[in-house]
Design brief:
Elements (H helix, E strand, L loop, with lengths): L3 H4 L27 E6 L2 E6 L12 E5 L1 E3 L3 E5 L5 E9 L5 H4 L5 E9 L9 E7 L2 E9 L7 E7 L5 H8 L16 H4 L7 E4 L11 H9 L3 E7 L22 E6 H8 L6 E4 L1 H19 L9 E2 L13 H15 L3 E6 L14 E5 L6 H10 L3 H10 L10 E5 L7
Parallel strand pairs: 1-18, 3-12, 3-14, 4-11, 14-17, 15-16
Antiparallel strand pairs: 1-2, 5-6, 6-7, 7-10, 8-9, 9-10, 12-13, 13-16, 17-18
Helix pairs in contact: 6-8, 7-8
């Protein structure tokens, strides 16, 4: 049973006033010139992101999310002049996510369709000039019972989906920026280590990294590693429930390489730093997947998942060492080189962290599940940190400034 105290946490208790003028509409010219609020040993200090290595232990491990934002917004103009916008969410067959962007000819996606009332039937067609000549993209309803499931097809048919999106797509910047996406967003709304197509939102804590900063990390013998979590549109959806027990988390796909798990296995907990809430949720979810495998080693690799409330009240918690070793044995037995699973994990005050005690993250929207996560890590002093950031003119949200947060002697975990 989930403790009623957790389920009855009121989302209004995680509200703060955020004027539109404090939301950063664009990134700084140099990414690592952003401000850095540091919370460690219970103390708040003010620095800059390019000084991050000074606050991290030598010979430690830094893990980030290497997902890549796709140009997921497609615009079509009907013959009547009506503008129809298609927002790609995820492939109809997400198990083949990694191969989807190499696909040629056609594909099927779950979508959100803007101005859908103006599109009753028939195809949407758009043609654009490209270096190889005219390219045509067509959208059709793939299922009359599900008007958000679309078939995309294109000519020339030998082009890949990635090439098609590069020609037709726009970067899906967050709606709270209240501006249209621009050419510069294609690079600025992307981490420098983005590697695998799949997200419709950036893991924005990583937007502050530069090549010169990575060199500073290497000089301090701080190893970098990665997980892959493709961020879905749910990250933009506000919490409408009054208590978190009534809020439904969206499912996201996580992929973690065997080599990363081995690095985690030899890393002491106080020498691990994660970049962003998506990386944190990936690693914490990995622990619970490992526990499932520990007790059920014959699990089906295609059905591994972590439910929203699964860890709460769990009485069978094993050690991190046992969990990670269980995953490694599972990969060896199944001949896999990476673990893939879905997670709907909700991290809220009362959650007991298993792997992560140090987090790099931006400043989040009021009344959001991400503020609940921050509070779960550092306790009710999250409000003091946000008051400090507001009073000291920090920039907020995706293109804003950053923070380095450490659990206070792990007392809340």
């Amino acid at each position: 049973m989930i403790g009623m105290k957790i389920k009855e946490i009121r989302i209004e208790d995680y509200h703060y006033e955020l004027p539109q003028t404090r939301i950063a509409l664009y990134p700084l010219d140099r990414r690592d010139d952003s401000r850095l609020l540091v919370f460690r040993n219970g103390q708040i200090s003010n620095s800059f992101f390019n000084q991050l290595p000074e606050f991290l232990p030598e010979n430690s491990l830094l893990i980030w999310n290497n997902t890549k934002v796709i140009p997921a917004r497609l615009e079509f103009r009907k013959s009547t002049g009506a503008l129809i916008e298609v927002f790609l969410l995820e492939p109809a067959f997400p198990s083949a996510y990694s191969a989807m962007f190499d696909k040629t000819d056609s594909c099927v996606w779950h979508t959100i369709i803007g101005n859908q009332k103006k599109w009753k039937s028939g195809p949407l067609v758009r043609t654009e000039e490209s270096p190889i000549g005219p390219v045509t993209l067509t959208a059709n309803y793939a299922d009359e019972t599900d008007k958000n499931l679309l078939m995309l097809s294109w000519l020339p048919a030998d082009l890949s989906l990635a090439e098609i999106l590069d020609i037709f797509g726009k970067t899906p910047i967050p709606p709270y920026l209240k501006r249209d996406s621009e050419q510069g967003d294609k690079t600025s709304y992307q981490t420098i280590y983005a590697n695998y197509d799949g997200s419709v939102a950036a893991p924005t804590a990583g937007l502050h990294f530069t090549e010169s900063l990575l060199q500073k990390l290497r000089e301090k013998n701080i190893k970098t590693d990665s997980v892959t979590l493709h961020v879905g549109s749910g990250t933009f959806i506000p919490v409408k429930a009054k208590v978190i027990g009534d809020h439904e988390m969206h499912a996201e796909t996580v992929i973690i390489e065997e080599s990363t798990i081995r690095d985690l296995l030899i890393c002491e907990s106080d020498r691990l730093t994660v970049v962003g809430t998506t990386s944190l949720r990936s690693l914490e979810s990995l622990f619970w997947i490992g526990q499932k495998i520990f007790y059920h080693p014959e699990s089906d690799p295609s059905s591994l998942s972590v439910d929203q409330w699964e860890p709460y009240g769990n009485t069978k918690t094993i050690s991190v060492h046992d969990s990670l070793n269980a995953v490694l044995r599972f990969l060896e037995a199944t001949g896999l080189k990476r673990i893939q699973f879905n997670t709907r994990l909700m991290i809220a005050p009362g959650y007991r962290f298993q792997l992560v005690h140090r987090l790099i993250t931006n400043f989040h929207q009021p009344s959001s599940t991400l503020l609940l996560l921050v509070s779960a890590l550092i306790g009710p002093r999250w409000r003091e940190l946000y008051d400090f950031a507001m009073a000291n003119n920090f920039r907020f949200l995706s293109y804003g400034d950053s923070s380095l947060l450490e659990a206070d002697n792990h007392t809340n975990v």
